[in-house]
Amino acid sequence: MVDTRFSMSVQIMMSLAYHGDELMNSDQLAKTLKTNATFVRKLVSRLVEAGIVQSFRGKAGGIKLAKSPQDISLKDIYLAATCEKTLINCHKKPINKACPISGCIEDVIGEIVVGIEETTKKYLLNKKLDQLMKKVQHK
Amino acid sequence: MVDTRFSMSVQIMMSLAYHGDELMNSDQLAKTLKTNATFVRKLVSRLVEAGIVQSFRGKAGGIKLAKSPQDISLKDIYLAATCEKTLINCHKKPINKACPISGCIEDVIGEIVVGIEETTKKYLLNKKLDQLMKKVQHK
User: For residue B18, what is the nearest residue in chain A, using CA coordinates?
Assistant: First the structure.
C-alpha cells in the first residue's frame, strides 16, 4: 500500500519550487516537515533518481528542482515516492484448492490493481507542480 | 488507507455469485477465505447495508446476492468495503507555521485525494461482478 511518503514527497517538491534556485538541504526540509533528516534524505534520493531533483555536493551544496515546476507532474512524484507499491493489494490468504474462486482471486484482483494504477497515473500526469503552487500564500 | 478488506469482499461477492440462489453462511465463506467467521460477518454486514447482499435469518438462513451479478459494480463493493477510507492520505505531521507550504499541504493533498477517489470510482463503476466471474474455471 502507498503510505504517507507520497504526501511528504509532494511537500518537499513544493518547498523546492518555493525556493527556486536557492539550494535547500535535508535539515531545512526536515524542520519544515517536522521529521528527521535521515528520512528526508531517503525521500530526496528517490526524487533525485527520478530526475526531478538535482543534488549538489560540497559545503555550499544542497538540492533544487531539476526542471521547472510546470514540467514536473504528480505522476513523476508518485512513481518516485511509491517505489512500485500499489494503492490496492490482494489479501495474502492461502488458496483453498476446493474453491474455484479462491484459485483465481489473485488474478482477478491483479487486473483491478493494474486498472486502478493506470487510471490514477493518467490523472496524476495531468496535475503539474506549478498548479499546486497556486495554493501557496506568498508572504 | 484501503486495506485488504476490498479484495476479501470481492472474493465473498464472487463466491455468492458462484452459488447463485443457494444460500451460503459465514462459516462456509470463512473456510473459503481461510479467515475467521467473525471477520467475515463484519464484511458481510457492510455488503448487506450497501444493498448488494441479502441476508435471511433462521435455521435455514444464510446470504446470497441481492441483485444479479451484471447489476453489481466493483464501485458498490469498494464503497461497502472501504467505509470512506481513501487510497491515499496526507501525512499527519504538525504544521510548521513559519513555512507557507506546510500551511497548505493538507488542502493540496486533500484535493489530490478527492481526484484519485473520483477517478478510481469511475473506473470501478464500469467493472461488473459478472465480468469477474468469467475468470472462474467451472468444475
Answer: A101
Residue among B33, B100, B122 whose CB faces A137 most closely: B100
Q: What is the pLDDT of residues A57-101, one digit of tens each?
A: 988 899 999 999 999 999 999 999 998 789 988 988 888 888 889
Its sign, for the CA torsion B106, B107, B109, B110, is positive
Q: Which fold has domain B5-133?
A: Arc Repressor Mutant, subunit A (1.10.10)
Rounded Cα gap, residues A86 and A23, in angstroms = 32
Measure the CA dihedral B25/B83/A82/A105, to 10°: 20
Q: Compute the residue count for chain A.
A: 139
* Interchain proximity B34–A100, CB inside 8 Å: no
For the stretch B39-72, what's the b/e string if a residue is b when 16 or more beta carbons lie within 10 angstroms of its beta carbon?
ebeebbebbeebebbeeeeeeeebbbbbeebeeb
Task: Please answer whether residues A46 and A83 qualify as being in contact, where contact means their C-beta atoms are separated by less than 8 angstroms.
Answer: yes
Rounded Cα gap, residues A72 and A59, in angstroms: 28
Give the closest of A35, A109, A135 to B108, CB-based.
A135
Alpha-helical (H) ranges within A34-68 are 37-49
Distance of alpha carbon B92 from alpha carbon B106, whole angstroms: 9
A69/B103 Cα distance (integer angstroms): 19
Length of chain B: 139
Strand residue runs (E) in chain A: 53-56, 62-65
- Closest-CA distance of chain B to residue A60, Å: 22
- What pTM value is reported for the model? 0.90
Please name which of A108, A96, A100, A18 lies closest in space to residue B137, comparing C-alpha atoms.
Answer: A100
Single out the residue of B29, B22, B21 nearest to residue B45, CA to CA: B29
**What was the pLDDT predicted at A118?**
96
Return d(Cα B107, Cα B81) in angstroms, integer: 26
